[in-house]
Design a protein that fits this description.
The structure holds two protein chains of two kinds. Chain A is mostly helical. Chain A contains nine helices and no strands. Chain A is 57% helix and 0% strand. By secondary structure, chain B is mainly beta. In chain B, strand 6 and strand 7 (107-117) form a beta hairpin. Classes of the chains: A mainly alpha, B mainly beta. At the A-B interface, helix 1 and helix 4 of A face loops of B. The complex binds copper (II) ion (CU). Residues 540, 570, 607, 609, 611, 615, 618 of chain B line the site of copper (II) ion (CU). Copper (II) ion binds next to loops of chain B.
C-alpha cells in the first residue's frame, strides 16, 4: 500500500519516475554520473554546508543517531538494504548527503542520483525523523569514517 | 396517519429523496481533496468506534475500544490485553452506545472522546492525537452503564447512570423485591484530569430503582446541572414492555453535580463497597491495570437540593440541553408531544412546596406544568433525541414514524418533516450537543436498512444518512452503511483535529521496558523456559532473523518498529499461532507477541503490512527444537 501511495502523492512525477526505474533497471549499464550530478546538492532544506576540521564531539553524537536510525539499512563495507557508505563523503556533496537524510522521498522523485539508487536498491529510503542538526552530526560521523 | 405514510414502508419516500439531483456533487470529495468534518460513530454491539469523513461518508478507520480487534492485535498483545480487564475477568466485547467529545467552555476542544460500555459497565477515553483507546475505567455498583458518558461544560466530570437497577450492593434477592425498593440505581461522577485526561471515580449517588436511559449536562446558566431520563418508574419486573407503560409520565432527573461535590466535601457521603478496575495505556508502554475498591456514596436525603424529578411524557429517551443552556428537551418513544422544560422555571419553582407533587427517596417531584416552557404538539411518532443547529432550530429524530422533524425553539412550531430510512435512533449535528454548533451537516443513525442496499443475506448493514442543514430546508444527501449499529455520534470539524494527528512514536521517547532502539541490541535471551526475543523491524527485514527455541518454551517476541516515517507500520504474525492474531506495530512502537512454542519443526514469521518492494521478503524462520 505504502509504495503505491508514495507514487500517487507525486502524481505528476510518477510516470517519469516509473520510466526512469524501468530504464535503469532494464539497462545493462549504469549511466555514468556526469560532472554536474556529482557536484549536485540534491533537493531539500540544505543549500550550503561549510565543512571545517573534523569535530569529534559532533561525530560522536552522529554515531549514536546513525546506530539507532540508519544502521539497520546501511553498513560501511557492504550493501545491505541500502548502499555501502564507505567513501560517501568523497562521492557526494555534504548538502546532497544531508538532503538525502532529511528529504529522502522527494530526493528519489527529483534527484537523478537518488532516482538511480532507488532503481538499484528498490527500497525507498525512509525519513527517520532526523532533525537538521542531527543530520549534520551524522555527516560528521560519515566524514570521520571516511578518514579512517 | 399521514406521518406513518411518510416513513418506513413507503416507497414514495425513497423516490422523493432521489430528486435532490445535485446531492452527488455536494458529497463528492475529489481524489486528493479532504473532507470537512470527522464523524465518529459508536459501534453498538460491535464495541468499537468508526471514523468517517463528511460529506463523503468514506470510512477511514475503526478504533477498537471495548472489543478485541485481530486486525491490529488490540486486546491480545501483552501491551493492550489489560485494557479489557474487569472484576468479571477479561471481557473482550461490549455494547457501546454514546460518544462524548471533550469540551472547554462548552465547546469542542478536540482532545478526547469518551465512550460507554453498557453490558459490563465501563467508560473509555480515546485520544484524538493517536486515535487510540488510552484508558478504560470500570463503573462499580452499576448494572448496565447506559446513561453515559455525558460531560459537564468543561469536562470536569463524566456522568454515568445505570440502565438496569439491581440490588446495590449486589445480593441474590427475590426478583419481585424490585417493586419493594430492594433494587436501586446509581449516578457516578467520573473526574477527568484536565491536563492528562486521566479518569477517577469521585462519587456515586444512590437513586431510586428505575432504568436510567440518557443524560446531557447543562451549559452557561445551567452549568451546575445534568439531566437524566428514566423509564419504568412503575418498577415493573415482569413483562416490562407492558408493565413499564402504565403511567402516563416518567421522569427527567435534574441533578446538581456542583451541590453533590459540595456534600462530598462536607463529608456527607459515606464509604461504600464496590470493586473496579482502571486500565491505563501510557504512551508506548504496556497498559497499567489497577484494581481499586470502595467508593464514596451519597444518599439524596443527606444532601438536600441535589436532585429533583421533572415528570415527562411516557418512556423518555433523549434529554438534550440547547446551546443557551435554557431548554431541556425531552423525547419519549411513547410520547405524543416533545416536552421542553425551562431551566429558569426549574430554578424558580424547585424549592416551593406548592410546585411539588410528592417525593421518591426524598427526591422532590415537581409538577409537570411548573417547569414546562412549551410542547411541540404532535410532531411525529416516537420522538427520541434532539440536536441543535445553533440558529434557533432543533432537530428531533422520530423512531416510529422514521423521520427527522425540524422545529423552532420558542414557538415550538414544526418547520419540516424529513423522511429517514428507517427507524432512526440518535441524530448528530456537527458540534450539535455543544454550546457552539458548527451546524451544516446532520446525520441520522438508523436501525433498519431494508431495501436500501444490495441484499447480503439476512443481516443487512445498519446505516446512517447525511443531511445538509445549512439552507432553509434540510435535504437528504446520501446514505451509507456502518460498522455495527451506528448508535450515536460526535462530529468534529476537521480543522480542529487534522493537524494534531500523531504521525509516529518518537523512538527516543519509547520507554517500553523491552524496547530496543538499535539493531545491534537485537538478541534472544533465555530465562528458564521463557525466551525473550528482542526484535527490530525496518523496511524490509527483522533482526534477529533466525531463532531457535525449545518445544514448550513460552516465547515473547518484543518487536520494535524502528521506522520513523508516517504511515509505515509493520505487521508481525507467526504461522499457526493459536492465541495471537496479527500485530500492527506503529513507527517507533514496541509490542509483544506471546507464543507457546509448539511441537518441533520450522515455523515461519513474516510482516503482514505491505511495506516496500521487498515486503514479501520480510519473512524469517523460527526453529523449534525437541
Ligand atoms: Cu514490513
Amino acid at each position: 500500500m505504502k509504495i503505491i501511495k508514495n507514487i500517487i502523492k507525486f502524481g505528476k512525477i510518477a510516470p517519469v519516475l516509473l520510466g526512469l526505474i524501468a530504464f535503469s533497471y532494464c539497462g545493462k549499464e549504469k549511466p555514468a554520473e556526469t560532472e554536474s550530478s556529482v557536484a549536485s546538492k540534491g533537493v531539500g532544506p540544505v543549500s550550503s554546508v561549510t565543512l571545517g576540521t573534523l569535530n569529534e564531539g559532533m561525530a560522536q553524537k552522529g554515531k549514536l543517531n546513525f546506530e539507532t536510525k540508519c544502521s539497520a539499512c546501511h553498513k560501511f563495507e557492504e550493501k545491505v538494504v541500502g548502499p555501502a557508505l564507505k567513501g560517501v563523503t568523497e562521492r557526494r556533496t555534504p548538502e546532497w548527503i544531508m538532503n538525502m537524510i532529511l528529504n529522502p522521498i522527494e530526493m528519489t522523485q527529483k534527484d537523478p542520483i537518488a532516482q538511480e539508487l532507488l532503481a538499484e536498491h528498490l527500497t525507498q529510503m525512509t525519513f527517520q525523523n532526523v532533525q537538521e542538526s542531527e543530520a549534520r552530526e551524522i555527516l560528521e560521523y560519515l566524514r570521520k569514517m571516511d578518514k579512517k | 396517519m399521514i406521518l406513518i405514510g411518510l416513513g418506513y414502508g413507503c416507497k414514495n419516500g425513497a423516490a422523493t429523496a432521489a430528486l435532490a439531483s445535485d446531492a452527488a456533487k455536494r458529497v463528492y470529495v475529489a481524489p486528493g481533496e479532504k473532507d470537512e468534518v470527522y464523524a465518529f460513530l459508536s459501534g453498538g454491539f460491535s464495541g468499537q468506534m468508526s471514523v468517517y469523513g463528511i460529506p463523503s461518508t468514506r470510512l477511514f478507520k475503526i478504533i477498537p475500544v471495548f472489543s478485541v480487534f485481530p486486525e491490529n492485535g488490540y486486546g491480545y498483545d501483552e501491551e493492550t490485553k489489560n485494557m479489557l480487564r474487569t472484576t468479571h475477568g477479561y471481557v473482550p466485547w461490549d455494547d457501546s452506545h454514546h460518544i462524548e467529545a471533550s469540551m472547554t467552555d462548552g465547546k469542542q476542544d478536540g482532545r478526547w472522546l469518551f465512550l460507554n460500555a453498557n453490558n459490563t459497565p465501563r467508560l473509555a477515553r480515546i485520544d484524538l492525537r493517536s486515535f487510540e483507546t488510552k484508558e478504560i475505567i470500570e463503573i462499580p455498583n452499576s448494572a448496565g452503564n447506559h446513561a453515559s458518558p455525558f460531560a459537564t461544560e468543561n469536562t470536569e466530570y463524566l456522568m454515568a447512570a445505570t440502565r438496569f437497577s439491581v440490588p446495590i450492593p449486589q445480593a441474590s434477592v427475590p426478583i419481585e423485591n424490585f417493586s419493594k425498593g430492594d433494587f436501586k440505581g446509581t449516578v457516578s461522577m467520573v473526574k477527568v484530569d484536565p491536563k492528562s485526561g486521566r479518569l477517577s471515580l469521585e462519587l456515586q449517588i444512590l437513586v431510586p430503582g428505575f432504568d436510567y436511559d440518557l443524560s446531557h449536562c447543562g451549559k452557561g446558566k445551567s452549568h451546575d446541572w445534568c439531566f437524566f431520563t428514566s423509564y419504568n418508574s412503575e418498577q415493573a419486573y415482569k413483562m416490562i414492555e407492558v408493565g413499564a407503560s402504565k403511567n402516563d409520565k416518567d421522569y427527567i432527573l435534574a441533578f446538581n453535580w456542583v451541590r453533590a461535590k459540595q456534600c462530598l466535601d462536607q463529608g456527607k457521603a459515606s464509604n461504600f463497597g464496590g470493586e473496579y478496575y482502571r486500565n491505563y495505556l501510557p504512551e508506548n508502554q504496556p497498559a497499567i491495570s489497577e484494581k481499586l475498591s470502595g467508593v464514596k456514596m451519597l444518599q439524596p436525603k443527606d444532601c438536600p437540593g441535589v436532585m429533583y424529578y421533572m415528570p415527562t411524557p411516557k418512556s423518555p429517551h433523549g434529554t438534550d440541553v440547547d446551546p443557551t443552556g435554557e431548554y431541556i428537551v425531552g423525547g419519549g418513544k411513547l410520547a405524543t408531544v416533545i416536552p421542553v422544560h425551562s431551566f429558569s422555571k426549574l430554578m424558580e419553582v424547585k424549592d416551593k412546596p406548592e410546585h411539588r407533587s410528592g417525593t421518591i427517596m426524598d427526591i422532590p417531584i415537581l409538577k409537570y406544568e411548573s417547569t414546562l416552557a412549551g410542547e411541540v404538539k404532535k410532531p411525529c411518532l416516537g420522538p427520541l433525541h434532539t440536536e441543535f443547529d445553533g440558529k434557533g432550530y432543533a432537530y428531533t429524530s422520530c423512531f416510529v414514524s422514521s423521520e427527522v422533524v425540524k422545529w423552532e425553539l420558542g414557538t415550538w412550531e414544526v418547520e419540516q418533516h424529513l423522511p429517514a430510512y428507517y427507524s432512526v435512533g440518535h441524530l448528530s449535528i456537527v458540534g450539535g450537543s455543544s454550546k457552539d454548533p458548527y451546524g451544516k451537516y446532520l446525520i441520522a443513525l438508523n436501525k433498519i436498512t431494508k431495501d436500501r442496499y444490495l441484499p447480503v443475506g439476512m443481516e443487512l448493514p445498519q446505516s446512517a444518512q447525511l443531511y445538509d442543514i445549512s439552507g432553509g430546508k434540510a435535504e437528504l444527501l446520501s446514505d451509507f452503511p456502518t460498522v455495527g449499529e451506528p448508535h450515536y455520534s460526535q462530529m468534529i470539524p476537521a480543522k480542529l483535529l487534522m493537524d494534531k494527528a500523531a504521525k509516529i512514536y518518537p523512538l527516543e521517547e519509547n520507554k517500553h521496558p523491552y524496547a530496543i532502539k538499535n539493531e545491534k541490541d537485537a538478541r534472544v535471551v533465555r530465562e528458564g523456559n521463557t525466551v525473550r526475543v528482542y526484535m527490530t523491524q525496518i523496511r524490509s527485514h527483522f533482526k534477529p532473523d533466525t531463532i531457535e527455541v525449545r518445544s514448550g518454551d513460552t516465547v515473547f517476541f518484543h518487536v520494535t518498529n524502528l521506522e520513523q516515517d508516517f504511515d509505515i507500520p509493520h505487521g508481525f504474525a507467526v504461522g499457526g499461532a493459536p492465541e495471537m492474531p496479527n500485530l500492527l506495530i506503529m513507527p517507533g512502537q514496541t509490542r509483544t507477541f506471546k507464543w507457546k512454542a509448539p511441537k518441533p519443526g520450522i515455523y515461519p514469521f513474516y510482516c503482514t503490512d505491505f511495506c516496500s518492494a521487498l515486503h514479501q521478503e520480510m519473512q524469517q524462520y523460527i526453529r523449534v527444537l525437541p
